[in-house]
Amino acid sequence: MERPVTETPALFRDCGPAEPARSIVLGKDTPLRLDSGVELGCFRLAYQTYGTLNADRSNAVLVCHALTGDHFVAEKHPVTGKPGWWNLMVGPGKPIDTDRFFVICSNVIGGCLGSEGPKEINPATGQPWGLSFPVITIADMVRAQKMLVEHLGIRQLFCVIGGSMGGMQVLQWAVSYPEMVYCCLPIATAARHSAQNIAFHEVGRQAIMADPEWRGGDYLNQNTRPTKGLAVARMAAHITYLSEPALHRKFGRNLQNRAAITFGFDADFQVESYLRHQGISFVERFDANSYLYITRAMDYFDLAADHGGVLANAFRVKGADGVERPTPVRFCLISFSSDWLFPTSESRAVVHALNAVAANVSFVEVETDKGHDAFLLDEPEFYQVARGFIEGNAQRRGLTSTAKGA
Amino acid sequence: MAISGPHIRTDLESITAWVDEGARVLDVGCGEGELLYALVHRKKVDGRGLELSMDGVRRCVGQGLAVIQGDADTDLKDYPSNSFDYVILSQTLQATRQPREILEQLVRIGRHAIISLPNFGYWRVRMELLLKGRMPVTDRLGYDWYNTPNIHFCTIRDFVMLCREMGIRIERSLILGADEKVIDAPADSGRANWWGEQALFLLQRT
Fold first, then answer.
1. Angle at alpha carbon of residue A321, lines to A319 and A323, rounded to 5°
2. Across the interface, do A358 and B84 touch by the CB < 8 Å criterion?
3. Fold of A197-297
4. Is the pLDDT of residue B7 over 90?
């Protein structure tokens, strides 16, 4: 089942500094051992890089994407044609300045934009993995990323950054490989998925599985797609990414292209029409089984549970002399005041745990009414804080202002 | 009621001078990070801050300082004992709800605590109360009694007595009078309590 390492040609090339998207097969010599106990001998990881790695390989920044994100961080998306999902954060002159840093982002394992996941062909059977793909966790995603980072010859990442599920990966990186992370920004995230969030995910999964076209997960072989179920899952999830004031400001009770209510079940209201559009456009770019796997990975995330139920223990590092010290990783947590999916209290719990070991931590709650999605939107204060944190640490790390001079 | 808004610069300069190079420092109520910034850049300390106001926190983090939003009254208990060389509380003790508990936390968390205070025993404050019969308000901090964040004022003598009672050793003190002139008097003297507009203490748990 050996597959050659190939470089896929660019699907789309922005005029920016983006290299063609690449993919690599990892785990050939040492398999990826998943939390479930399954070993993945060979798996593909799709990734993208921006900027140039400096001579001593100290300027690498790893961006971790959220549930439905991908590695097209700062360039036009090859499927949707939309701008990069975080081009406010990553790019020339942006807080993560691609003129200065070498930025890496990989599609998570279990994803559906080129990395090994339920939609890809299982080399052992020649059929799509479907539900035979092993259940993965946030820690598994991070293990796979670590193999990529090592493959790129990077011993320590200058920074690991991500929001939402990306923030979970950031926390996991800092806990699993503290020596490989200089500083990190877990944004709009939590050290565990709350009961309410698991509940929302379950609604989404049930919507997919209730669609007859899902075919017990075998839809790819049967040449159908559970688009209706996946669209409903997305609609429900999308509400959780916003806030009541933001929805009200955007739509109110405004009617959609009509003067009066129709006494029927058409999309009378603008908000209905908007959600339907969100659902329909989502199914074009996302695989339903991938949605099941990735939401599950988030549900299983609980850093404290992995450390005897005490979150602070996750941030203690045992040195070669056997003495426990606070994690050397420098943290900056950012939350958003109207985020009810990953509320500020979740970030604060992480901050408390970090304080309890006297780790180096900054924490800011950004005032906004835009809800969870605020980390992707234009919130000047958010980028100002991120820029300050990154700049301060870059100076401390001895990274000069351009990668070329380093 | 605010008295003598001690001009921040001089007491910050003195604090900076007292802190050892490269020390681990926690600045409680670090405001917009003026002191922390000076300590990090001039004394190369490993500096952290705790600040109640989100505006202050954002400004601190925006300039690269490690600061979290939090409340000294509730959050200090999270820090492990002896986790810092110096814990600094600059011009903040009088604005806390539980000054005594906070003082206890400061000397627990830090090997040393540095505290600066406005002195309610300063002669001008006494005169204001004595002659006008009004709660003292000065130009520098224009709060009235009903809107001041400063809810627990004390005199230098009060503070010295409290330290004695709590078994806290005053390792060093600095009394600053009008125009931030150094008053050459021991902290427990009547002269310090009369002429001192503000005081600075280096403390240690005994």
1. 60
2. yes
3. Rna Polymerase Sigma Factor; Chain: A (1.10.1740)
4. no
